[in-house]
Amino acid sequence: MALSIALMGVLLVACGSADNLNTGSKSSNSSKTELTGQTDSGYYQGVIKNGHYQTSKSRGVSVSQVSNQLNIKGFENGLLNISKEEFSTKKYVFQEGQYLSTAKVENWLGRKSKSNPTGLNPKKGSPYVPNYLSQISEQDFMTENGRNLSLSGMTIGLAINSVDYYTKKTDGPTLEADISDAQVNKQGKAIAAKVLKRLRAQKALKNIPIVIALYKQASDDSLVGGNFFAYAVNDGGATKISKWTKVNQKNYVFPIQSGKKSPSKTDEDAFDNFKSQVQNFFPNLSGVTAQAQYSDGTLNGMKVSITTQFYSQTEIISFTQYLQQAAQKYLPSNAPIDITVQSTDGIQSFLSRNAGEKNFTSHIFNSY
Amino acid sequence: MALSIALMGVLLVACGSADNLNTGSKSSNSSKTELTGQTDSGYYQGVIKNGHYQTSKSRGVSVSQVSNQLNIKGFENGLLNISKEEFSTKKYVFQEGQYLSTAKVENWLGRKSKSNPTGLNPKKGSPYVPNYLSQISEQDFMTENGRNLSLSGMTIGLAINSVDYYTKKTDGPTLEADISDAQVNKQGKAIAAKVLKRLRAQKALKNIPIVIALYKQASDDSLVGGNFFAYAVNDGGATKISKWTKVNQKNYVFPIQSGKKSPSKTDEDAFDNFKSQVQNFFPNLSGVTAQAQYSDGTLNGMKVSITTQFYSQTEIISFTQYLQQAAQKYLPSNAPIDITVQSTDGIQSFLSRNAGEKNFTSHIFNSY
């Protein structure tokens, strides 16, 4: 019962959700658990306790320690996608990590030392020994037993540096220690083995499936985040990782810089055509870039970002309508694509096409 | 034929558009006219010439002269809505104003003087005489005659100051001249009469219907833009305005400040309940405000803006799903509502419900 959260209140579930339990809110206010509702089956419902979202026990550690935001967003989104493979969004409820506290995560992210025996980064050394482990993320997956939610699975993400930034003395210049892919892989797996053993030592985590996924962080100046390269599914009780599944995922920035490798000549040309059409639209030039992600050479999706100056709301409307047409004509089909249109005043409109759809939907932001 | 733009190329029209003409682009490049396509029947298609959007002849005048951006967006959006009443988006194509040049608009916006005889603002005087006219916007409405687009209607928006900001000497303090509603109304209509006469003197504008609409600008510190208060439809040939139609439109900011008049106690309570639920969600407080517009006491729509700090992508997802539920439960039904969710890093997600719909759709922005 240590794993169960009594659902004293009644679950609020959005219309059309797959796991509609009860509705209403007549109950007493003591330890009331609700769910966030589900806007679409691609997302997990989350846990609300007494009207407050149940935040992570290690909330804010990544935000305070990782400088390239793309490494945080990419890590968390990618980890969710890996979780979804094991823990269906229809069956499981997502809970922010409750088993690794801020203190524990901070210690684990530190270097091993006398004062920090649980540090998962290597002891200080000379020549400089890089820090490998940069982020730890815990995701809990709950199932509903009657009116209780109980922990039924966990995913742990470990983000490994591809570059470690350090200074030799306080206020000294920032130096970079590059870490080879082979090292990222080796060190990541070694850390994962230790983490699994430590988790199994917690009574509540002994017998649940635990997925551990490894992410290679991008450098601080990268315009895309890093990528997952392996994960292991560990059945309840397993204290050793028996099998790693390789993930062949890579992010690119379009337009591809000259001299850099292109993931797909077709997609590159498609984007370049789109870009030159769009840049032609206004007399003033628009900035057009995109992030693209590939898995096993197949485009997972594109996030297109367009920045331009607008002189009227009617220009925003016309431009957005034009983009819808141009995106459909030029950009790769079959992949989900988001397009955000921004000016110095912030987002002006956005267009989106989901996987398998032909047409883009659009939204133009306005005000009263 | 002065009004006709030869459609040398072939019109590109988005799928599902009501006025599908031709598709393809085999033609020569000389003076090729295309349309932007139409993302939804609530928007006009716009005119593209030789691959470039046909921008307004007075492009940028408002942006350079009006300090409260909300007065620009609100003026242009509102003017489009008035245009749609006279010129159906299904039948007419929108063209940015081509008959009032930057020089002309700047002169008209100036004070009348020896060097500027066409100035529509009063001569300098003592005591200080305020500037009434602040913005002029021209919208052209075209119809398709075979392969030609010809001008078939025009809407002119005149924005009148409710406060005129001025200095007595260069670098002196900014002073405010308040303008009463009665003056806004009187001066606006007098200026409109002159504008109509001037437009009719242009050969191309003699015989088309011209709508003139009057907007009262909000003060520079207002968190909502101004509002339209009257418009006149002038049939082809008419050189005098025979009838003004009153517009009873007003914008509000929620939460209503104590002591300020509420447009609707029900809507005010609904918003306050939504706000307190939402602010309860995270341990850190969220800012929750809204712009609301009423016509004849009926809610036209709401733009809700939520700002909070997020510590992870999963928090953004859970919050957005929760908002969908809370918005549906608490916010006024039957009116279109947009909700944007922002952090210091910009927009994180947004939710939207169109008029007549029950459910909100949502989009969560992410990155690779």
From TrEMBL, chains A, B:
Keywords: Signal. InterPro entries: CamS (IPR011426). The keyword NADP does not apply. Pfam families: CamS. Residues 1-18 form the signal peptide. This is CamS family sex pheromone protein. It comes from Lentilactobacillus curieae. The lineage of its organism: Bacteria, Bacillati, Bacillota, Bacilli, Lactobacillales.
